[in-house]
Amino acid sequence: SDHMENIYGYLMKYTNLVTGWQYRFFVLNNDAGLLEYFVNEQSRHLKPRGTLQLAGAVISPSDEDSHTFTVNAASGEQYKLRATDAKERQHWVSRLQICTQHHTEAIGKNNPPLKSRSFSLASQGSANSPGVQRRPSQNAVSFFNVGHHRLPTGKRVPIMQPDHLVDVREMMSQAEGQQRDLIRSIECLPVSGHLTSLDQDLLMLKATSMATMNCLNDCFHILQLQHASQQKGSLPAGTTISWLEPKISLANHFKNGAAQNFPAEINKPASVREEQSISEPCQLTREPEEINPDEELEDICDDKEDDLGAVEEQRSVILHLLSQLKLGMDLTRVVLPTFILEKRSLLEMYADFMSHPDLFIAITNGTTPEERMIRFVEYYLTSFHEGRKGAIAKKPYNPIIGETFHCSWRMPKSDVATDAGSNFSAHSPSEQVTPSKDLESQTELDYYTVKFVAEQVSHHPPVSGFYAECVERKMCVNAHIWTKSKFLGMSIGVTMVGEGLLSLVEHGEEYTFSLPCAYARSILTVPWVELGGKVNINCAKTGYSASINFHTKPFYGGKLHRVTGEVKQNATNTVVCRVQGEWNSVLEFTYSNGETKYVDLTKLSVTRKRVRPLEKQGPFESRRLWQHVTESLRDGDIDKATEHKRALEERQRNEERLRAETETPWCTKYFLKEGDGWVYHKPLWKTVSAVQTQQTDTN
């Protein structure tokens, strides 16, 4: 081909977190199908510093910018490269892709299928590897005396009978038990000494044994599909069976209940069997449910996440997980260990951002557009502190598709600011804001009610929708958020993709806003959370906007959790308010009239949300859905919590496959797709407009 010429030149190569980017001289050897690099052009005649085989590689332009791209070799090695501009990147990417395709196709044409061969873990290391030098006569397999079970040879059975499936399930249950014993034996080893739980060979053994069991589960699921199709008739034309995720529950594929007779099912707790047997959500009522706030009780749950023990004890698990991740890898489909979980769903975490309903309601009481924008910024910046439970960076449960969360807040009208000042008026950082009054003694006319509903509207990508309203004040907020997580080396970054809309119906104003990124830092020691990025708040009608920067801590020096921002009148470009401080500590607001206010978030009163008791919640409401996981985490039983969590995830995967096989679309309950976003089915701005129109027609 005319395009198969050798090319060379300088590119920047990402080395590691410490060294960063470095210029290196790269050579594309089309004849050999190699990408080689050298320290500089003068050292080209020497041995290359690195070489990648391009056959079977994947060349991917990055979405970070227009200069970066990656070369992912079939061996698993990756080069992250950066050209000087977009044109040069396109030149390298197109030539690399042509060379890769040529050599990949050549392998397929010229090489017969590989014969099966035995695999020995010890033979993979060289004679100079630390493992071989340390114990030349002993490898990890012989150390744990792993047994191998062979199925008896015989004629192939053309149709798999149900009793054969039972036999296979029993054998796999035995193998899974042995694999768990193997993992437990490795993890019980000390972290230092002659043979440790962090030994590279043992980490490899853990990973390969897990991958083997996952593969066997995939194969078993295909047998189940074949059996189900023979029971019902042949599969529809065009149906394909693809490789699936591990650990498939049988309950959805056997109508006669045969799955319940499997030994693996008998040994499971009743709560796990219940989690796996809840029917497909679309078969439940998908009609929106009106929640009566009078059924909700003040929340007495107070799960603080201050325990460091589990994180320190499970460091080997974290190291094993990190060994399988790559820089920039999307973590959406990565199953994270249970011990890092918070005792609440992500949907409930969004509700906890509303823990200052007095500040939320006070927004619409502002007498001018300027004051209303400033009040919204004040509320926005005070919402993040309560959204975090404790100082440790733990992760809330990933919501199951169709999962919902409902709650409400009651706020005494006397505690909501109505004048030109804010209800946290000027005070020093040491002063404490007056706590809310006891609500039980308030009559119905003495308080406002803020209602909240959230729903997981999509699984891949993971998108949540949430909506809150105060009908008495004719205000509501609607938002949809797609959480995109990436592995960043010693940190995990989560981007909140989406948009929120605050509607003040009384004033005819709409405020659009976004959310900052979140980072879990120091994941090998004491993980902690910081926010980062720039967010914007805009009101098109009034012409006011706010720009807020969440600053991440510099490598050297600097403060943690710093935030700065300003509110502008766009027409005149006049700054009417500036803010600085820490989003989890003290905020300082400076206004155009010279007045300064301080807000100590650690002393700001928090209104407890009101939630229905578990017995009154539906099966897909967050607390009832995750109750067994939460109870196990409270008891410190990580293994039991993992088992319950896995049962929920299995059920979700089974239901997703069933919908794909039957081409049944998912039906949301409370939110409707509008363009690229999700909107509550009955937002206040629509219902109020409908009532006003009806009254006008009547008059």
UniProtKB/TrEMBL annotation:
Localization, UniProt: Golgi apparatus, trans-Golgi network membrane; Late endosome membrane
Gene3D superfamilies the record matches: 1.10.287.2720, 2.40.160.120, 6.10.140.1150, Pleckstrin-homology domain (PH domain)/Phosphotyrosine-binding domain (PTB)
Annotated stretches, region: Disordered: 104-136, 637-658
Keywords carried by this UniProt record: Acetylation, Endosome, Golgi apparatus, Lipid transport, Lipid-binding, Membrane, Phosphoprotein, Transport
Catalysed conversion reaction: a 1,2-diacyl-sn-glycero-3-phospho-(1D-myo-inositol 4-phosphate)(out) + a 1,2-diacyl-sn-glycero-3-phospho-L-serine(in) = a 1,2-diacyl-sn-glycero-3-phospho-(1D-myo-inositol 4-phosphate)(in) + a 1,2-diacyl-sn-glycero-3-phospho-L-serine(out)
GO cellular component, as recorded: cytosol; Golgi apparatus; late endosome membrane
A GO biological-process term: lipid transport
CDD domains per record: PH_ORP10_ORP11 (cd13291)
UniProt cross-references to InterPro entries, sorted A to Z: OSBP_sf (IPR037239), Oxysterol-bd (IPR000648), Oxysterol-bd_CS (IPR018494), PH-like_dom_sf (IPR011993), PH_domain (IPR001849)
Acetylation found in the keyword field: yes
MF terms in GO: sterol binding
UniProt biased composition (Polar residues): 117-136
Domain of life: Eukaryota
Span of domain PH: 4-101
Biological role stated in the UniProt entry: Plays a role in regulating ADIPOQ and FABP4 levels in differentiating adipocytes and is also involved in regulation of adipocyte triglyceride storage. Weakly binds 25-hydroxycholesterol. Interacts with OSBPL9 to function as lipid transfer proteins.
Subunit details: Heterodimer with OSBPL9.
Similarity annotation: Belongs to the OSBP family.
Protein name: Oxysterol-binding protein
Species per Swiss-Prot/TrEMBL record: Ciconia maguari
